[in-house]
Amino acid sequence: MVLLDNSSFILRLEKIANNARNDSSFTVTFKRYDGHDRPEPREGRPPLAKPSTYMCLMRAQCKSKKISTVLRQEDVPTMMAMYSQFMKSKMDGLKRVKKVKSKAKIAKG
Amino acid sequence: MVFVKNWEDFEIAAENMYMANPQNCRYTMKYVHSKGHILLKMTDNVKCVQYKAENMPDLKKIEKITSNLVGHMASKE
Predict the structure, then answer these.
(1) Best exposed site among A30, A72, B55, B75 by fewest CB in 10 Å?
(2) What domains can be seen in chain A, in order of their start residue?
(3) Chain A 27-66, CB below 8 Å of chain B: which residues?
């Protein structure tokens, strides 16, 4: 698992998506992240400090390649803009639905 | 592990599941280009809701729910 910063995560994700295009798939996972990288202490020990703000852990996987990144609250808008751009450009294999002309238009033309 | 047929039902179920247990929930999307679909999944290790998106207009909705959920995940409480 490679921990990357936000923009290089998207770049790597694009590469992964290109590789997965022909015959495989890729997954992207979102999860809340409290910043602790250790397990919950056993009973009788002091518990881990409660974080003041939560973050979002974003992971991607294709076959055995795994990458991840941590989103902080202030990075969310820029990251989501980049991610939706990514979705539009890479997840383009879905069926296109023809727009049905509304009755008014048909009557006009 | 059943696929929800209706998008609205999935959206509500996924958000409710996340709100009930934010610490253990994860939201996954899997894209299979050769089959032309996106699988969405929300699980808290006990229950699981899934949705299969096959049409282009679904992408917009997926974008919306994703940014919504990420907004919830990276927040103060």
Answers:
(1) B55
(2) 2-92 (3.30.720.10)
(3) 27-34, 52-56, 58
Q: Is there a domain that residue B11 lies in?
A: yes
B34 chain-A contacts, CB cut-off 8 A: 22-23, 93
Asked if the Cβ–Cβ distance from A53 to B28 is below 8 Å, we say: no
Give dist(CA A23, CA A20) in Å, integer: 6
Per-residue pLDDT for B75 more than 80? yes
**What residue numbers bound the domain in which B51 lies?**
7-72
Q: What is the ipTM of this complex?
A: 0.92
Q: How far apart are CA B28 and CA B40, in angstroms?
A: 6
Read off the CATH number of the domain in which B12 is found.
3.30.720.10
pLDDT tens across A85-97, in order? 999 999 988 888 8
Total number of domains in chain B: 1
pLDDT tens string B43-73: 999 999 999 999 999 999 999 999 999 999 9
B16 phi-psi bin (left φ>0, alpha ψ -120 to 50, beta other): alpha
